[in-house]
Amino acid sequence: QVQLVESGGGSVQAGGSLRLSCVTSGDTVNAMGWFRQVPGKEREGVATIGSDGTTRYVDPVKGRFTISKDNAKNTLYLEMNGLKPEDTGMYYCATCTALAWFCTPDRQHFFRYWGQGTQVTVSS
Length: 124
Description:
Layout: E1 4-7, E2 10-13, E3 18-24, E4 32-37, E5 44-49, E6 55-57, E7 65-70, E8 75-80, E9 89-96, E10 111-114, E11 118-123
Parallel strand pairs: 2-11
Antiparallel strand pairs: 1-3, 3-8, 4-5, 4-9, 5-6, 7-8, 9-10, 9-11
């Protein structure tokens, strides 16, 4: 069983920055991703990074968020700049065990292992 632990969340004002980290007990060779959820809404994809380093972002975060990983440290990151109130939510990291083509932000059902989440709150 792979375990993932997120950290780095917090409360910031609009325009601020945060860096989320996700340490996995497995490795980061597989595709991984960040997802977020607001109470009362479905969880949505934010960004994914493939085993070859290919990154994908949903439109609302393009140009502001950067996903990366350090395979030597088994750690996934999400650098978030220019934060907006609509970025508020619980952020989860996850590992995809399917073929890379399926591991995209809009296919979270292919992500098998999930962390417990870290809260991000952006105030206006």
